[in-house]
Amino acid sequence: MGMQGDFYQLLKEQGYQLGSSAAAGHGQEMTNATTILAFKYRDGVLVAGDRRATAGNMVMYDRTDKVLEIDRYSVMAIAGVPATAYEMVRVLEHSFKYYRRTQLQELSFEGKLRAVSKLLKENVAAALAGTGAVVPVFAGYDFEQGMAKIFFYDILGAEFEGVEYAVSGSGSPTIRGILHYINTWGERPLVALTEEEATIQALRLLTSAAEFDSATGGVNREANLYPIIKLITQDGVRVVPDDRLKPLFESKVVRHV
Amino acid sequence: MYEEPYRWVEAVGNRRTYLDEQFKQGSPVVAIAYDGGIVLATISKGTPKLYEIYDRIALGGMGHPADLEKLRFSLLEMSHTEGFNRSPSDVTGARLVKYGVAPAIKQAFEEVYKAPFIVKILLAELGQKPAKDVLLTINYDGTFEETTGCVVIAATSAVQKEMMTYIRHETSSNLSLGQAVATALLAWALGDRAQRLASADSERSNDTETAGSKVSPTDTAALSAYLREYIAEKTVECAVLDRNQPGSSKYRALASDELRRLLPAGLQAALVS
């Protein structure tokens, strides 16, 4: 009941159901057309995502924010069916707030992770039917351990910790290799990068993903359109503003031959 | 027992006497708008009396902790399901009060076979613009009032009136947070003192009708002194709905060191005990 501070339970008691109760069966394979990434840098975790939303070959929208703040200390980057993903984020956002306000304490980081996989598990039928698969990356600050952490999931809700980095979406195979390479043989591992260096890497990685994946939107300088990059540190979630990304992109990402 | 109407009226009357008695020792709660939002303040002995309800709504309560808890939960349930099913901007203090808790409190009050809620409730709602700020109070019988600027709940309406007069007299339109907190605490002192005097008077009134203790000074020094004396071993509780706070949740409880920094020197001394 309400006394446990479980908002999702409360919603279900009122007849709420996450997504449609699709029957598992012959669903078509839905691609997770996007690129999201997260990696640890010196001060915490950087989470980034491109801004393109597609439906098949069509570009639906070029200003999507796929790196969604759930509360002051956690974000969920979403790949997969946006309708379900946004709904999950809404449920999580209200669940964490409800827990904090009823129980008069913050939900633990472990508790937040459980809430994410619980929602993904509830969504398995829709995911298998091909109408609601969501493959998120969840990152947040764990106060008990005093560090920011990254977790990624499969569509069935299995949870894996991305100790150094995690990626998801159709553009992710490209950059997964790059992340592995720079983390292993780069001058310094990712975790040693400063905020600025990490931001530059994120811009380069997303630009590479856009190079090889049609569903990933790159930087569009004419439209003043840059990826979403958010930083999670002990002080909470912070958005890197466009006017900071713009000079970094121009001086460190564009190749001046 | 109560099947005849006049008996019922009598029973409700008894209930009022009973409830008034319950609040005599209660700690008043004050809410004042300042230039960056709304501040709520009270002094509590153990159980907290100020709570976060929703993104822009805060609760202050007087009365029985278990009853307050029950109503707090229904407020939380209502606001969160409404905020999820519709949108956070559809969660308003007025709707929560008028269609939510006030009818429930009134019903419990009038069902003379059952126990009433021993609570007085204050809801503060931070509007998108300062002009849209709303302060609401609900009495134990379900009567609610809506106002702006400042509001209090205290044992009796006479004490409430006295506190409101004090606040209105002491404050101008653009208060800083520090000024608002200081005024709120001094108003609390005024209210708490008035309640003590009233209950002392009523005990004596059997003997003499002329209890002339109305002449207590209401200057800052006297009230600070009262505060110093009476908040030993109690907790000063202060919370703000801060318009400038990043993110959607605007509620923040003021930590004791922040509180100390905000207050003028005379009151700081009262807190360091």
Largest sheet of chain A: 5 strands, antiparallel
Query: In which order are the strands of the major sheet of chain B placed?
Result: 8-1-2-9-10
Largest sheet of chain B: 5 strands, antiparallel
Shape of chain A: globular
Euclidean distance between termini CA atoms of chain B: 53 Å
Percent helix among the residues of chain B? 40-55%
How many DSSP H or I helices of chain A? 7
Summing up helix and strand content along with how strands pair, one would put the structural category of chain A as alpha+beta
Which chain pair has the greatest contact? A-B, 18 and 15 residues
Order of helices and strands of chain B: HEEEEHHEEEEHHHEEHH
Strand and helix map with partners:
The complex is a heterodimer of chains A (257) and B (273).
Chain A: H1 7-13, E1 36-41, E2 44-49, E3 53-55, E4 58-61, E5 67-71, E6 74-77, H2 82-103, H3 109-122, H4 124-129, E7 137-142, E8 147-153, E9 159-161, E10 165-168, H5 172-185, H6 195-212, E11 228-233, E12 236-239, H7 242-253
Antiparallel strand pairs in A: 1-2, 1-10, 2-11, 3-4, 5-6, 6-7, 7-8, 8-9, 11-12
Helix pairs in contact in A: 2-3, 5-6, 6-7
Chain B: H1 5-23, E1 29-34, E2 37-44, E3 50-54, E4 57-63, H2 65-85, H3 93-110, E5 119-125, E6 134-138, E7 144-147, E8 150-153, H4 157-170, H5 177-204, H6 220-230, E9 235-242, E10 251-253, H7 256-262, H8 265-271
Antiparallel strand pairs in B: 1-2, 1-8, 2-9, 3-4, 4-5, 5-6, 6-7, 9-10
Helix pairs in contact in B: 4-5, 5-6, 6-8
